[in-house]
Amino acid sequence: MALALLLAAAPAAASTGVSSPQITGIEMTNPVRRTLKQIEEQWLQWIVQTSSKDSERVVDDLLATARQLGMRRLPDLSVGAIARAHQVARQGDFVRAHWALEAADRLDPGRPAVAFAEAYVDRQQGNYLGAVGATLRGFVRIFGAPLERYLWLHDLLVWSLCLLLITGALFIAVQMVSKGGVLFEDLVAMFARRLPRGVATVATVLVLLFPLALPSGLLWLPLSW
User: Fold this and answer.
1) Which residues contact 11 (CB under 8 A, 6 or more apart)?
2) pLDDT by residue (tens digit) across 90-105?
3) CA distance 220 to 214
4) Which domains, ranges and CATH numbers included, belong to the chain?
5) What is the percent of the chain with per-residue pLDDT over 70, rounded to a whole number?
6) Which among 149, 43, 159, 150 is positioned nearest to 103, based on CA atoms?
7) Taking the CB of the first residue and of the last residue of the chain, which one, N or C, has fewer CB atoms within 10 A?
8) Could you give the 3-state DSSP secondary structure of residue 99?
């Protein structure tokens, strides 16, 4: 997305030596604009390529030009290559679709969408076994990304804690159903040693149910029991 914004902003800034940061968010000098223009031209060259060898050559040039700007990945162009693979696959040109996906993978290595796009092309081609493999590879890439892996582990931890809490609460509930009457009578008998029977009963109810008055009372109640 950042590259797309830069490419869109480059023509608008061509009339001045330096683009306005208030417009583009990025201050671009003439060399930067020329490099972005070169990336745009190389991308247009890639669009019209008809062989895997020429595609690899243009992708090499694209990556070399991008490195001049300190960019190691070109995710926007990778998405464009994926869209190109879908387009030519629908036209029945599966060879071209596959080398377009190879280009997409080089422009943004490890992108899960590339593997899922490969699965789509394989299904269109009738290679269902390859489609299953590509789909699995896409999920592996999703969980292999640091952010997604962190979120997945975080969700797993929360789910495990919730499961443990619910299991414990159900165990306590079963104990209270089977033995709660005995516990209630024991507490009433304990309080009745010093208080009238009616007051002892009220005190027992308060002792058993007071956690409900706390914030998140349903959480504290089984812990108290």
Assistant:
1) none
2) 988 888 999 899 999 9
3) 8
4) 2-145 (1.25.40), 148-224 (no CATH)
5) 88
6) 43
7) N
8) helix
